[in-house]
């Protein structure tokens, strides 16, 4: 049993801290590890302990002399990543309108993914952009049912552009995440398979644009490769959020 | 008449090169951290050149770690590749306000190595290095002496010194060998409960020292 079962607060605090250390080091059995992982998903203070231990223990690596890997390792990495990019169904580059922002290191540095900060920052940027229509900009933080936010989505109705910024979405290797918009009282409408690892811009088709409004829900499900067959969601909902105006 | 030559350091396969040592040191200096963070953020946007920057700055250290944790060079090379593929896929999840970039990378590398050790039962049996460490004394004083000269955070090593030797060895073995309590109990023939309470006491002392 891992040390997180005690009740008294003093040793309870110890147990939390020690459980985090055990988790980071890899001392726990598979079952214990799963329990601690589940705790980490729902308890931000515990996640913080984990991060602190990771920082401390990473100093073990100071004992090591760096060693040059053979060149073929990098060659293989470059080959595979370039192949992954060319095969990606989602454009790897964000829409040019947002490129300047996304290229700015200053924007990314210090942004906490999944927090309101991103939503506000994106909203602030979008608001600063000149828009022909005064329609309200919408923002949704798409969160998994447990754990930190998985995505932040910002929608600019003037351009029918939805910006998706992924945070920490854990997916099953065999399945792909698909994004749906669920307008109030209507069936889910697919916005396509998304890339959980890169920010991306999605242009909403004109006929769907009226559905992107305050109160509409955004949902991510895990679907078979290639997306939900027949445009009907089959997989589990792993994250959801609701649009609200900025 | 003066002659001038530009000397460039060449890399030796499988051996440490000055280039790697300098790169590793650079990655961990304050400006190096910022450069690495910025590169990771660019990787999140699909920037291939930025991935190469991350690799150049960090592969030496991560490869050394994997060679220590895994039983063969070939396996270490495979896992190193997996690590940078994971970096490529997950760079968007890197949050510089939560973790330093090198820690994030080391965590990925360790977890990949542990996954590999545990998914391939043959590997753990082959892995002799860390098992021996359980029965040998602390790393050579020269390692620590070398570290004294650097600007790095020495709290972990100073606090480890306050533990009993076996506690220190167990904790180091866990880091570099990926051992579970179960593994440690079996390899040392010490009952599981004893190993657990012993190491936990060590971790509590370590925590108290690190926090002070």
Report on this model:
The complex is a heterodimer of chains A (246) and B (212). Chain A is an alpha+beta fold. Chain A is built from seven helices and nine strands; from the N terminus they run αααααααβββββββββ. In chain A, strands 1, 2, 3, 4, 5, 6, 7, 8 and 9 form a nine-stranded antiparallel β-sheet that branches. The radius of gyration of chain A is 21 Å and the shape is extended. Mean pLDDT of chain A is 72; it is low at 89-135. Chain B is mostly helical. Helix content of chain B is 71%, strand content 0%. Chain B contains twelve helices and no strands. At the A-B interface, helix 1, helix 3 and helix 4 of A face helix 1, helix 2, helix 3, helix 4 and helix 5 of B.
Evaluate the radius of gyration of chain A.
21 Å
Strand content of chain A: 15-25%
Largest sheet of chain B: none
Question: Helix fraction of chain B?
Answer: over 70%
Computed CA radius of gyration of chain B, to the nearest angstrom: 19 Å
Helix content of chain A: 25-40%
Large-scale geometry of chain A: extended
Structural class computed from helices and strand pairing of chain A = alpha+beta
**Number of distinct beta strands of chain A:** 9
Outline of this structure?
The complex is a heterodimer of chains A (about 250) and B (about 210). Chain A has helices at about 10-25, 30-40, 45-55, 70-85, 95-105, 105-110, 115-130; strands at about 140-145, 150-155, 160-165, 175-180, 190-195, 200-205, 215-225, 235-240, 245. Chain A is α+β, with helices and mostly antiparallel strands and about 250 residues long.
Structure characteristics:
heterodimer; B: about 210 residues; globular; disordered N terminus
SSE blueprint and pairings:
The complex is a heterodimer of chains A (246) and B (212).
Chain A (H helix, E strand, L loop, with lengths): L8 H17 L4 H13 L1 H14 L13 H17 L8 H8 L1 H4 L7 H13 L9 E7 L6 E6 L4 E6 L8 E8 L6 E5 L6 E4 L13 E8 L12 E6 L1 E2 L1
Antiparallel strand pairs in A: 1-2, 1-8, 1-9, 2-3, 3-6, 4-5, 4-7, 7-8
Chain B lengths: L17 H11 L1 H15 L3 H22 L3 H18 L10 H19 L1 H6 L2 H5 L7 H8 L6 H6 L4 H13 L3 H8 L3 H20 L1
Helix pairs in contact in B: 1-2, 1-3, 2-3, 3-4, 3-5, 4-5, 10-12, 11-12
């Amino acid at each position: 049993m891992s040390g997180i079962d005690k009740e008294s607060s003093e040793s309870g605090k110890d147990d939390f801290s020690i459980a985090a250390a055990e988790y980071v080091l890899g001392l726990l059995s598979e079952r214990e590890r799963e329990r601690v992982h589940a705790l980490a998903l729902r308890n931000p203070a515990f996640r913080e302990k984990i991060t602190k231990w990771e920082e401390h223990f990473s100093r073990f690596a100071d004992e090591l002399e760096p060693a040059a890997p053979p060149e073929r390792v990098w060659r293989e990495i470059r080959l595979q990543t370039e192949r992954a990019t060319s095969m990606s169904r989602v454009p790897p580059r964000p829409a040019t309108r947002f490129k300047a922002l996304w290229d700015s290191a200053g924007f990314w540095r210090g942004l906490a993914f999944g927090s309101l900060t991103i939503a506000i920052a994106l909203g602030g940027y979008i608001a600063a952009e000149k828009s022909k229509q005064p329609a309200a900009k919408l923002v949704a933080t798409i969160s998994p049912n447990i754990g930190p936010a998985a995505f932040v989505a910002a929608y600019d109705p003037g351009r029918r552009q939805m910006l998706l910024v992924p945070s920490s979405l854990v997916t099953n290797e065999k399945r792909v995440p698909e994004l749906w918009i669920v307008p109030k009282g209507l069936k889910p409408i697919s916005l396509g398979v998304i890339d959980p690892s890169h920010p991306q811009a999605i242009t909403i088709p004109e006929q769907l644009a009226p559905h992107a409004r305050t109160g509409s829900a955004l949902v991510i499900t895990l679907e078979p490769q290639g997306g939900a067959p027949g445009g009907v969601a089959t997989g589990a909902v792993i994250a959801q959020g609701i649009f609200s105006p900025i | 008449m003066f002659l001038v030559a530009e000397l460039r350091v060449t890399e030796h396969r499988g051996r440490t090169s000055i280039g790697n040592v300098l790169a590793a040191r650079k990655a961990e200096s304050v400006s190096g951290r910022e450069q690495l963070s910025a590169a990771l953020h660019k990787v999140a946007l699909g920037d291939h050149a930025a991935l190469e920057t991350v690799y150049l700055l960090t592969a030496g250290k991560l490869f050394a770690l994997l060679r220590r944790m895994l039983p063969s060079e070939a396996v270490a090379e495979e896992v190193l590749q997996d690590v940078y593929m994971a970096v490529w896929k997950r760079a968007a999840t890197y949050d510089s306000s939560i973790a330093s970039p090198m820690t994030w990378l080391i965590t990925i590398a360790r977890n990949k190595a542990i996954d590999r050790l545990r998914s391939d039962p043959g590997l753990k049996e082959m892995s002799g290095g860390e098992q021996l460490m359980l029965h040998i004394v602390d790393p050579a004083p020269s390692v620590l002496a070398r570290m004294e000269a650097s600007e790095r955070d020495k709290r972990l090593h100073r606090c480890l010194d306050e533990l009993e030797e076996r506690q220190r060895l167990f904790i180091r073995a866990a880091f570099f060998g990926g051992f579970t309590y179960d593994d440690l109990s079996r390899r040392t023939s010490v009952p599981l409960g004893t190993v657990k309470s012993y190491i936990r006491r060590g971790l509590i002392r370590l925590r108290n020292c690190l926090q002070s």
